[in-house]
Amino acid sequence: MRSTTGTFRSVPDRFSSTPSVSSSCSRPGQLHSLSSSTPQDKDHIVQQTDVDASGSRLAAVNLGYLVDPYAALLHAGGENDRPRRFPLINRGTYTRTTAIDELVVQFLKGVPTGQRKQIVSLGAGSDTRYWRLKERSGEWTRGLVYHEMDFPEVARKKAERVKRCGVLLKALELGENITFGHGDGDSGGNGSTTPTPSSVSLQQTCASANTVDIDQNTGNITSPDYYLHAIDIRLLKPGLPASPLPDAIETSIPTLILSECCLIYLAPAEADAILTFFTTVFKLSHPLSIVLYEPIGSDDAFGKVMVQNLATRGIVLQTLKKYSTLSRQKERLRMLGFKGGQAAGDVDWIWENWVGANEKKRLARLEMLDEVEEWKLLARHYCVVWGWKNGEGENVGWEGWKTVAEQRVED
């Protein structure tokens, strides 16, 4: 196994397509070793991590780990970038993506067909999940409204890419039916070939261009079932005289919050305030759920090296020490209002227990992974955590989660 002071001199790529920390697989110069003294400098470093994260997703897609025709279209690194990642990073990207996808689908299937529901993605960056869900277009997507939030600087770049890409823009204008040339559009591990934009066919059903408003100056996008909100989520605090929550987000329908390595950059008090804000705004009578993806394990040797090397590059994972274990992550959700239930699994455990034998064989054929011990070390330092609060005795939205295996966590 390689030394943690060798390959992993900095935090490994966070297996993701939303704002991430840098990895040893990043392109030289992508993130600079600078000591930022101003809040604006620190925010800029966090914003730039989206390039590495979307590059990791695109690398996994290009090798066949995932099917995602939108990864290249929304890649923050530009059209000419052809990112590559080590095999263990690609495996991590696959595991993290498919695990969260499964939890999202189970949430949607738990809501009665046609009932309005919404997903609110914090720090969404170049994420493609809205387009991938719309492509799958099952009965369980009926009535779904998808919201994304990110810094105005990040939102403006995404809004620009959406506006100039016909495939992305047309999807916003459509009703609920969308078909692709590669089959049913399932985005997880089926071995399908990812289509290029020219091979994608869209079936328009009921909408026109005037149903979509893209403001490139602010970064806001408004459409029938997708919203991009240019907002600093640190403004979401409980107890303010006027709620900073965008008007389009409804507080009386089943809702799933996604935070994929987003809150980790905030001070613990800021991160806790955001979650408390949501559990407060969504009254007890209204169901609310959350899925978190974050690094853990800052207390062991690997974690300490990870934190130290990131600090030299101006990146601080501020909540890592407070929520450094699975049990602490679960308790975090319970204490902040998700009292209906909490569950968790690290990425290594999810790989072993959620990915079937045939799928593992398919992935093994894509490229050789001979760093098994290193993979386990890395994967055990990332986790997926999910929790919910019930609405007046209802379990809408997470009945399916009760069938999902969870890792036993020692207190």
Automatic annotation (TrEMBL):
GO molecular function: protein C-terminal leucine carboxyl O-methyltransferase activity
Matches recorded under InterPro entries: LCMT1 (IPR016651), Ppm1/Ppm2/Tcmp (IPR007213), SAM-dependent_MTases_sf (IPR029063)
Entry EC no(s): 2.1.1.233
Keyword set includes S-adenosyl-L-methionine: yes
Enzyme class at the top of the EC tree: transferase
Binding residues annotated for S-adenosyl-L-methionine, in chain numbering: R96, G123, D232, I233, E260
PROSITE patterns in alphabetical order: PROKAR_LIPOPROTEIN
Similarity section: Belongs to the methyltransferase superfamily. LCMT family.
Function noted in UniProt: Methylates the carboxyl group of the C-terminal leucine residue of protein phosphatase 2A catalytic subunits to form alpha-leucine ester residues.
Protein name in the entry: Leucine carboxyl methyltransferase 1
The organism of origin for this protein: Terfezia boudieri ATCC MYA-4762
